[in-house]
Design a protein that fits this description.
Number of domains: 3
Number of helices: 9
Keywords: Methyltransferase, Transferase
Bound molecules: zinc ion
Strand content: 15-25%
Shape: globular
CATH superfamily of the largest domain: Vaccinia Virus protein VP39
CATH architecture of the largest domain: 3-Layer(aba) Sandwich
Distance between the termini: 41 Å
GO biological process, one term: methylation
Low-confidence stretches: 95-99
Pfam family, one: Methyltransf_23
Helix content: 10-25%
Structural class: alpha/beta
Protein name: Class I SAM-dependent methyltransferase
Organism: Candidatus Methylobacter titanis
CATH class of the largest domain: Alpha Beta
Strand order of the largest sheet: 8-7-6-9-10-13-12
Length: 414
């Protein structure tokens, strides 16, 4: 039994050499909130890899987070082009946040405010495949729009006969067949390169009494203990309550209600058409909030680094988790640098990842770890929310407790 794990394709970090970048992936832009051209750099990753290795497709790019010197909004610059988005996020699963938040809570919230009363025209901007719309009452007219063509096609097949109307189009130019009474954008705005154009377009297709619901994560609640922090590589704008308010004022939306969701980072606002104003000033206290955010994030990195240093050295490591968390593990912790001769495999239960590799490490079905000889080998769980579920799955695959290595002392599960 001793040498069984010799048969697994152990590999050293960065042993795949074909990964590369392309200038077509990103483009510079003015501040997405105020249009300002001056910013300060907050954070740079020079060589960030998006998911699996590829010699054919550009999968690496620089990630640079900046803060506007005029309005203090925090944003990604350069941001992804449409081409870049297609290459970098092809393996990310759902392009927008349709898994974020809580659909039933969102529906109850809208019912309480009369937003789902009979015969209302409801538009979901960023509808993905229409699954959220499919859960709304049939007594309203349900329309969705998204730029993700395959998702729209799938949704039309799945929900079309049920009366859900799905439109494929860009959020800043699509044609809506009728002025909507209610528009929802749950966890969409932070993914868009040009939120001003999108909100102006939504205002132009609305009537005087249209209500728009926007929910985004905000900087004020961005502190947690996950190394893949609030400044997510998937988000093009990192809103604060203030920068969201300024964006709304600039695009002609008047805020009626603001609400912080208690159990996950979601800041929800209900707005209606109003006067547009460039007069709303940026909030300089967003500078302090950014410092407080980084203070917390770097402390988390130090805690994780101390934990890694405290583990027994092993000549082999199994990484469980082939997603973006592992790229953060590579970028912000010493795990892969402390012994360049160390050999790894990655396991992940997502069949779309299996058979590929990440930074040269083969991604395999977790079942293979039943064959691993755990003498001189660790299992590192590379997931925040999934840490305990993975630990249980590892025990079920006969991994000894003593080699299961957790990065986090506690996990806040949403
Ligand atoms: Zn700005």
């Amino acid at each position: 039994m001793k040498n069984k794990s010799l048969n697994l394709p152990w590999a050293k970090i960065n042993s795949f050499t074909g990964n590369h970048t392309s200038p077509a992936l990103t483009t510079y832009r003015p501040c997405p909130i105020c249009g300002g051209l001056h910013s300060r750099t907050l954070l740079v990753f020079d060589d960030f890899q998006f998911y699996s290795d590829s010699a054919e497709q550009p999968k690496r790019t620089q990630i640079r987070e900046v803060q506007c010197q005029s309005c203090h909004a925090v944003y990604l610059n350069p941001c992804y082009t449409n081409t870049g988005f297609d290459y970098l996020f092809a393996e990310a699963g759902q392009s927008y946040g349709s898994t974020d938040g809580r659909p039933q809570e969102q529906i109850d919230w809208m019912v309480t405010r009369g937003l789902l009363d009979d015969d209302k025209v409801f538009l979901d901007a960023g509808c993905y495949d229409g699954r959220f719309l499919s859960g709304l009452p049939k007594s309203i007219r349900r329309i969705g729009v998204d730029i993700d063509a395959p998702a729209i096609t799938r949704g039309q097949e799945r929900y079309g006969s049920d009366g859900v109307e799905l439109i494929h189009g860009a959020f800043e130019t699509f044609q809506c067949p009728v002025a909507p009474d209610v528009i929802s954008m749950f966890h969409v705005l932070e993914h868009l390169a040009n939120p001003v154009e999108v909100l102006c377009h939504l205002r132009s297709i609305s009537h005087d009494e249209t209500r728009l619901i926007v929910e985004v994560p905000i900087l004020e609640y961005g502190k947690n203990n996950d190394i893949n922090g609030f400044l997510s590589a998937q988000h093009m704008t990192h809103f604060s309550a203030h920068s969201l308010g300024k964006l709304m004022a600039r695009t002609g939306w008047e805020i009626l209600e603001r609400q912080q969701m208690p159990d996950y980072n979601g800041h929800r606002i209900l707005v209606k058409p109003g006067e547009s104003s460039d007069k709303v000033m940026g909030d300089v206290s967003d500078r302090t909030r950014v410092s407080e955010y980084f203070e917390n994030w770097y402390r988390n990195q130090a805690e994780v680094a101390r934990k890694i240093e405290s583990w027994p050295r092993a000549s082999r490591i199994v990484i469980w988790g082939g997603g973006m968390h592992s790229e953060f593990l590579y970028q912000v912790t010493p795990l892969f640098q402390q012994d360049l001769q160390c050999e790894y495999i990655v396991v992940d239960s997502d069949p779309l990842k299996q058979g590929k590799s990440w930074r040269g490490l083969p991604i395999l079905n977790p079942d293979v770890i039943q064959d691993v000889d755990w003498d001189d080998c660790l299992l590192v769980i590379s997931s925040y929310g999934g840490q305990e579920a993975i630990a249980r799955a590892a025990v079920n695959l006969n991994v000894p407790d003593s080699v299961i290595s957790r990065l986090y002392d506690f996990v806040k599960v949403y």
